[in-house]
Amino acid sequence: MVITKDIKMADVIHMNHFSLSILERFGIELGFGDKSVDETCKIYNVDTDFFLEIINAFIHTEYFPKKQLQNFPVKLITDYLQKTHNYYMQIKVPEIESLIEEMVLSCSTQKENINLLKRFFSEYKEELKNHIQREEKVVFPYTQLIENAFYSDKIDKQTLRQMDEYSIDIFEKEHDNIEEKLYDLKNIIIKYLPQPNNKTLCNKLLHELFGLEKDINDHSRIEDKVLVPKILEMEKGIRKKAGLKV
Q1: What is the DSSP letter of 61?
Q2: pLDDT digits (tens, 9 = 90+) for 162-207
Q3: Tens digit of pLDDT for each residue in 22-63?
Q4: d(CA 241, CA 246)
Q5: Residues whose CB is less than 8 angstroms from the CB of residue 124 and which lie 6 or more positions away in sequence, other chains included
Q6: C-alpha 111 chain-centroid distance
Q7: 101-138 burial, b for 16+ CB within 10 Å, e for fewer?
Q8: Is the CB of residue 1 less than 8 Å from the CB of residue 15?
């Protein structure tokens, strides 16, 4: 079922409780009663159409409104991507670290294996942090520069020079797959880690890792299928406007 603006926001959560994390990124708090998606979004100054595209893409894997999302301003897309970065580093990663630490403390015979798991996740955290920093310091400022230039009447030489030094297809080529290490980490737990004393903690950890992997996959889809094609088209438009070969 595709979510529309007239559906109650509470029903969105009942459809998929993972959508709570999306509401959090938009700054929408619980306690909205029977208000619709549209009514709730207006209270929190959230673009309803943008929210609908994001939430539907998140809940339904077969739904991906690439063209619709490409119609939204770059700033709106990158702001959402940055909020997702914050969600990973400030909420999800600390939650997973806390579960691993609990496993370390609760194990009397598996400490070496659990500590190995802890080191592996620590390396992943560092990789994720570097990935995020590169996007926020290099990629997102560049996408904003391109959008500004695209809608400008005159293309300055500095913009063209920056496009020569760094274009979005470089990001597309070097966009490392940060989901792969999560898959490896899950496999270590499922296939090779002897069952720890506290099996419930282990299952909770796997649940959180599966959730983070899905979330990062959705995040990457927006970058690869929406942001990159949008900026590629704008780069072509800028070159054309400047009288350069496209």
Answers
A1: T
A2: 898 888 988 877 666 677 788 888 888 888 776 666 778 888 999 9
A3: 999 999 999 999 999 999 999 999 999 999 999 998 888 788
A4: 10
A5: 181, 182, 185
A6: 33
A7: eebeeebeebeebbeebbebbeebbeebeebbeebeee
A8: yes
Residue entry with tokens 């560092």: 126
- How far apart, in whole angstroms, are the C-alpha atoms of residue 74 and residue 241? 20
Q: Which residue has the tokens 């939650």?
A: 95
